[in-house]
Write a structure and sequence with these properties.
Elements: E1 3-9, E2 27-33, E3 38-40, E4 43-45, E5 48-54, E6 60-67, E7 73-79, E8 82-85, E9 88-91, E10 97-103, E11 109-115, E12 122-128, E13 134-140, E14 143-146, E15 149-152, E16 158-164, E17 170-178, E18 183-189, E19 195-207, E20 210-225, E21 231-237, E22 244-250, E23 255-262, E24 265-268, E25 271-274, E26 280-287, E27 292-298, E28 308-315, E29 322-325, E30 334-337, E31 340-347, E32 353-360, E33 372-375, E34 380-381, E35 387-393, E36 399-404, E37 410-414, E38 417-421, E39 427-435, E40 438-439, E41 443-447, E42 449-450, E43 458-462, E44 465-467, E45 473-478, E46 484-489, E47 495-499, E48 502-505, E49 512-520, E50 523-524, E51 528-535
Parallel strand pairs: 34-42, 44-51
Antiparallel strand pairs: 1-2, 2-5, 3-4, 6-7, 7-10, 8-9, 10-11, 12-13, 13-16, 14-15, 16-17, 17-19, 18-19, 19-20, 20-21, 22-23, 23-26, 24-25, 27-28, 28-30, 29-31, 31-32, 33-35, 35-38, 36-37, 36-39, 39-40, 39-41, 43-45, 45-48, 46-47, 46-49, 49-50, 49-51
Length: 555
């Protein structure tokens, strides 16, 4: 609700407002006024909140003023020799130097900084953005220093725009111009944190990527600068006389309002202004439609690939458009791209530009191998009717595929956890991750399957006939399989005689039938019998008798 006014003064103003003058030469004065400023007959009818003045024995001029969101007041201008503001004394490097100073909302100096070089430097306009950064614009000759940033003019005078942080340090400084006398005379915020500057140039000048040739003496220009000080587009206009843009402001609908002067004639689009002699004023409204693009980005499938593409449709602005990619291409769309960032600048027929960064990434990464493979069941019998669950642990990719007969040989299923019918033989399963970028090595797990016992083909006893208690008998089973072969006597599964497909019976006393079969975890086979005949041993004669005990000789 307060008004901040900047001006310069000399002794002629002493009767109109309270002030302090040093040496009778122009100084600058800052007034902070309550709301309701009124001017009547050249006199100020206002209650002042505070007034500040700075000056020296030379000339100082305040050329721009603004306030930040906290009510602090920022002032820019030019000075010669030295200038003391609060406790800070600035010393000029040359003819005119630029000053920028900050006052609190109560009029107390906060800081003061200077910029410029050994020749004539001018600050004409100021703006404070919502973040508290101060932007100033003007002209310079030779080499000018803005904090740690140095810029050098190309000719008699060049355009500068510089940004200062809330503490007075310089954020950036940029220049434009040519061999003639060029200056930025007006500054206003634009959308998206950018700025518009306006001014004049003569002869040939370069502003950003655009080069202009004046039609007469001075021509006017308009340029857009982004929040980092990069000039994004520029346009110029003028007639045979001297033309300049001294003031501008921006609207919220892409319009820029420009005020300035011209001599002779000047045209704005289809509107031709005829000079009435000397210098005339003009006011113009320019419309700028934002360029808009609807991109379609196709990423590369895998790292190291070159199948990425960028395509889009352009809207807004005014055709025709030109395209400039940071890789040197000037086509609208790009193909055969690798992973990376791609910067595009589109320029329309008005000189408006749109900067866009596209990022190409890899849709997939190379797969990584599983660390292990497991099964929930094993060591079951071959006639098992259940299922097994195979699990691949760790690794990455699009899908896990399982194989038998070797890694990648015979496919049996997909997924990190796979359910399969139980195998009927011991089987090794191989798991690996796969995607469009490749395949990994396999992790493996072996599912052990127990076989069913098989009936022997035959059994035999050698010898098959023996004398009782006199010799051993060797029992032999041929063929078949199982965990163990057992021999029984009297009946199949009866009295266990011994184990092994070959078994020696020490001796027999009676005729005996042996029954042999294979036995295992998964069952038993039918028995095959074999008999051994046992012959009795001769028995010792215990006594002898005769029918008569005595007979006559030759009876």
């Amino acid at each position: 609700g307060f008004h901040a006014v900047i001006n310069y003064f000399d002794k002629s103003l002493l009767e109109e407002i309270q002030k302090v003058v040093r040496g009778g030469v122009p100084s600058f004065k800052l007034y902070m006024l309550y709301p309701g400023l009124q001017l009547r007959d050249g006199e100020i009818y206002q209650i002042m909140q505070w007034v500040k003045q700075a000056g020296s024995v030379t000339t100082e001029t305040g050329t721009g003023i603004g306030t930040d969101m906290s009510g602090n007041v920022l002032v820019t201008g030019i000075f010669q020799s030295s200038l003391t503001i609060g406790s800070t004394t600035l010393t000029s490097s040359g003819a005119n130097d630029i000053f920028l100073t900050k006052y609190s909302r109560y009029g107390e100096p906060v800081w003061a900084v200077q910029a410029g070089g050994t020749q004539d430097d001018q600050s004409y306009s100021i703006h404070i953005n919502p973040a508290g950064q101060t932007i100033i614009a003007g002209s310079f000759i030779g080499t000018a220093q803005f904090g740690l940033n140095s810029i050098t003019s190309a000719g008699a005078g060049d355009i500068f725009v510089a940004a200062f942080n809330a503490d007075g340090t310089n954020a950036w400084a940029t220049r434009a111009g040519g061999l003639g006398d060029d200056a930025a005379l007006a500054l206003s915020p634009w959308i998206n944190g950018d700025y518009m500057i306006g001014g004049r140039f003569s002869q040939t000048t370069t502003i950003g990527a655009k080069q202009f040739q004046s039609a007469g003496g001075n021509d006017l220009f308009l340029a857009r600068i982004d929040a980092l000080g990069v000039i994004r587009f520029a346009i110029a206009n003028g007639g045979q006389g001297d033309d300049a843009a001294f003031a501008l402001t921006t609207g919220t609908t892409g319009k820029v309002y420009i005020g300035g002067n011209y001599s002779q004639n000047i045209g704005f689009g289809t509107n031709i202004l005829l000079g009435s002699g000397g210098t005339d004023a003009f006011f113009a409204t320019l419309s700028f439609d934002d360029l808009y693009i609807a991109p379609v980005v196709t990423n590369v499938n895998c790292p190291g690939g070159s199948d990425g593409t960028i395509s889009y449709e352009v809207a807004g602005g005014r055709a025709p458009y030109t395209f400039q990619w940071d890789n040197g291409s000037t086509t609208q769309n790009l193909t055969g791209l690798v992973v990376g960032n791609y910067q595009l600048t589109i320029t329309d027929a008005n000189g408006c530009t749109k900067d866009t960064t596209f990022t190409i990434i890899s849709e997939s990464l190379p797969p990584t191998a599983p660390t292990a493979a497991t099964t929930d069941r094993e060591n079951f019998c071959e006639n098992d009717n259940g299922n097994i669950l195979l699990t691949a642990i760790g690794g990455t990719g699009e899908i896990v595929k399982w194989y038998t007969d070797g890694c990648g040989t015979t496919p049996v299923g997909e997924d990190e956890i796979l359910s399969l019918a139980s195998p009927d033989t011991t089987t090794t399963y191989y798991a690996r991750w796969e995607n469009v970028c490749g395949i990994t090595s396999c992790a493996e797990v072996t599912v052990h399957v127990r076989n069913l016992p098989e009936t022997p083909i035959s059994v035999m006893a050698i010898p098959a006939t023996v004398c009782a208690g006199a010799e051993s008998v060797t029992l032999t089973a041929t063929g078949g399989s199982g965990d163990i072969f057992r021999w029984y006597k009297n009946s199949c599964g009866g009295i266990l005689e011994g184990e092994g497909s070959t078994f020696v019976v020490p001796s027999l006393t009676t005729n005996t039938t042996f029954y042999g079969r294979y036995e295992s975890y998964c069952g038993i086979t039918p028995c095959l019998p074999v008999s051994v005949t046992v012959l009795p041993q001769p028995v010792k004669v215990t006594s002898v008798t005769a029918s008569v005990s005595e007979i006559c000789f030759n009876y």
